[in-house]
Amino acid sequence: MLDTLTISIQPTTASRLGELDPANIEFGKIFADHMFAVDYADGEWQAAQIVPYGDMAVSPANSALHYGQAIFEGMKAYKAPNGEIALFRPLDNWRRLNESAARMCMPEIPEELFMQGLSQLIRLDAGWVPSTAGSSLYIRPFMFATDGFIGVRPSDAYRFMIFTCPVGKYYNKPLRVRFENKYVRSAEGGAGYAKNAGNYGAAMYPTKLAQQQGYNQLIWTDASEHRYVEESGTMNAIFVIDGRVVTPALSSSILDGITRRSVLQLARDWGLTVEERKVSVLEIIEALKQGKLNEAFGVGTAATIAPIATIGYEGTDYELPQTTANAFSLRVGEALDAIRSGEAPDPHGWMVRV
Ligand SMILES: *Cc1c(COP(=O)(O)O)cnc(C)c1O
């Protein structure tokens, strides 16, 4: 990778790496030593810097806090057995961040700024990328408004930042989910396809209600009729019905997940039938009743594959068959793990070394 962009680096004088216990990592609470930050002002991105991870000062009047001008990405870096560190499909995250930015009237980030910030930060914190099986470095790029102005209009100033946290092997306990038929995560024409902060804040209350009823997550349905499947929690939903891989087609209300895209690609590589189309709740319930719903799972960067064991609908809980050793969800999860850890060939060129 080219090193043309100059990023000033202020290394930490008090590394916390010694305190990290790779066998005992609590997700999202431990942050690597450094963070990347660059401000946008006067119509352009200013000098970029890498500084020790820590608190920062912002105007209490910024439009991220009041009106939700805040977007983020989630991605991971993996360490290969030979110690090399690679990112999984980082340009896909960069493109999606800019799509989210456009939707929220925020400035786009040049590819070089994103990729250089990312790779220089990860090279500096290379020691924080865990190497045990199934572990990785979770990366959180994000951008928010920084104007000290309380009027409702797009901010003129923004900050783009990246911090990282080591994550251990994710334990995929099969989930209990239920179809949501009152609340909505997003509507056609809304901002559901963007990773903007407000989508997540508004999903917490309906999710909490489902959790109080003993479910782990919701399966969101369409905003106008609650007839069609949208997503599973903050993951895309994939079903295996009678041997076919079926998933809701993308729309403005569904987030275009990079894991979803990768899982569907592998399914096609393996010669499976893949259907991206409207998937009705009744179709899933019928398939459950007839024993034709082979598998259901969520897909996303954090968990990769989150198998679903139980689906609730109108007060009845339907059990899925136990996941077998040759289940598609298991095989595709293992195939992705093998590509990411460098143990398997990468025919689609998904891995980018830092
Ligand atoms: C991030 C996210 C996903 C998964 O996207 P990946 O790129 O696979 O991590 C799915 N749905 C929602 C709502 C998301 O925010």
UniProtKB/TrEMBL annotation:
Keywords: Amino-acid biosynthesis, Aminotransferase, Branched-chain amino acid biosynthesis, Pyridoxal phosphate, Transferase. Gene3D superfamilies: 3.30.470.10, D-amino Acid Aminotransferase, subunit A, domain 2. It catalyses: L-isoleucine + 2-oxoglutarate = (S)-3-methyl-2-oxopentanoate + L-glutamate; L-leucine + 2-oxoglutarate = 4-methyl-2-oxopentanoate + L-glutamate; L-valine + 2-oxoglutarate = 3-methyl-2-oxobutanoate + L-glutamate. InterPro entries: Aminotrans_IV (IPR001544), Aminotransferase-like (IPR036038), B_amino_transII (IPR005786), BCAT-like_C (IPR043132), BCAT-like_N (IPR043131), BCAT_family (IPR033939). One of its GO terms (biological process) is L-valine biosynthetic process. The modification N6-(pyridoxal phosphate)lysine is found at residue 195. GO terms for molecular function: L-isoleucine-2-oxoglutarate transaminase activity; L-leucine-2-oxoglutarate transaminase activity; L-valine-2-oxoglutarate transaminase activity. Pathway: Amino-acid biosynthesis; L-isoleucine biosynthesis; L-isoleucine from 2-oxobutanoate: step 4/4; Amino-acid biosynthesis; L-leucine biosynthesis; L-leucine from 3-methyl-2-oxobutanoate: step 4/4; Amino-acid biosynthesis; L-valine biosynthesis; L-valine from pyruvate: step 4/4. Belongs to the class-IV pyridoxal-phosphate-dependent aminotransferase family. Acts on leucine, isoleucine and valine. This is branched-chain-amino-acid transaminase.
